[in-house]
Protein 1
Amino acid sequence: MVGFDLIDAGRLYTRCFQERYRQLNLTQCRALLALAQNQGITQSGLAQLVAVDSAALGRILDRLEVSRWAKRHPHPGDRRARSLVITEEARALLPFVWSVVTESQRDALQGFSVDEKQFLMSALKRVLANLRLCVGAVE
């Protein structure tokens, strides 16, 4: 079944990534890369962007702060919210993180033609859009 296969693919991809790069956490990398492209975003905005619930993202941000890769600042428009930014240490790490992500993707898609890769990405985007609509209808 497609849903189970997607779950299995995600778990195996994460496991392969973790075994190769023990010092990096895939979920943290994803949050860090999204944050690097959206400096100043709020925690709830980033949670929505990376499709992680806000509480889980809070724990991820705690770890990123301990690693000195991210900081929370008071949000200028909402005293309850925090603006998120990456640090200079994280900025220096970004090329390495991108290379790790690229290498992991290359391994996962080994043997795929360019057309197959494009089709897969297109199909996954459609699946994600459908699921987001489904979740939005339930919430």
Note: The radius of gyration is 17 Å.
Protein 2
Amino acid sequence: MALEKNSPCKVNLLLNILGRRPDGFHELETVMHPVNLCDRLAFERGGRGVEMTCSGASLGTDSSNLVHRAATEFLQAAQVNDGVRIHLEKKIPLAAGLGGGSGNAATTLLGLNELFGQPLPQEKLHEIAAALGSDTPFFLQTKPALATGRGENVQSLEFFPALRGTVFLLIHPGFGISTAWAYQNLARFPPR
């Protein structure tokens, strides 16, 4: 029997880039807010290792995919010898700054932890999530959050009263910009 989970995206309501860190990442201060535009993930025990399928033809289903990497890390950390089959139904646009891949990775960690009877504590899930991507830990919780560091230090916030009853209008221009490319090109814009 398959376990299915929605995998939401997010918007950054505020993003301050405070400088470059010694590890090559950028020090951030950002307020992220979950958005109810979701991909869908289905998890099922069986097979060998991680077997993945995806509705998005442009996405790989091997270790190049964050879902596959999250599942592999989870199985290893939880010392699970069973295999898992995962299907990703993609609706969130790629390279749109919405954290779709990070959300998918976090949802995979949460889904597999549920599927296998909660073998990992929240702290271990956070550790794995932070290693997978800077904003992946945000998606382990469901509220707006202040994120610092490279984005992995997450402090949940209450929903903002000013946003009650409102919606986010997201417009995709038909092309994407990779996060890595955007940060690499910050050097072209020196601080004032």
Note: The helical segments are 66-77, 100-115, 122-132, 179-184.
Protein 3
Amino acid sequence: MPPELTVVGSINIDLVARVERFPKPGETVGGGEFHRFPGGKGANQAVAAARLGADVRLVGRVGADAFALDAVEAEGVDVTAVSRDDGESGVALIFVNAEGENVIVVAPGANARLEPQPVTGAVVCQLEIPNEVVLAAARDASFFCLNAAPARPIDVEPDLLVVNRYEYETVSRGKLVALTNGEEGAVLLQDGREIARAAPPRVEAVDGTAAGDAFTACLVVSHLEGREWDEALTRACAAGAIAASRFGAQPSLPTAEEVDQILAA
């Protein structure tokens, strides 16, 4: 039986411009290449978990434009708990430079209007939704993972906290903490003590937009499959590396077979 997972989080439309370099304040940089993708950290992690073999339910909110939700549903994710309204969906404005680095500004839209609701079982949340929604999701979950991005203080201690080194400065409470550091890999901390470490396979970075989402989803799905934490962390680093080697958020997310292949290479 595949592991069951509920993702409570954001659903966005990603408006992406590829540029040679980022503009300085007040500067206009020409020659950009524009793309429109389905995105949002919640939707990305739901799609990633589904491609990795989990049975996934998404809880979120969209506006009148259902473009991003249609893409999630096409991946086999259960979207019956996604509410709709007549306002604007969430939008992420993303610039990606020639080195694959990105800068992102999110206008939350409908994500900010998501209301708390009870969820059970294994649950993953991020912080592109209101705090009260995250706290409600954590209350009845049997296993609760928080990917604390974008980081802000929140009074919850998840079973698993996923953060990068900058987010860790703001949110550090978690029974287990997966601390990511880009191409250097990740460590898993329990009570501040390292219990596992992994490095990603080498890839050519193209766009890091959804690398963290692929990492988070793969870490949780691997754990729910019964894998040891060191193996789960290794698989998560591989999933993140694959995502970083491809352009776009959801189009970059790997399948379980692709994770197996890159680890076997």
Note: Residues 7 and 124 are 5 Å apart (CA to CA).
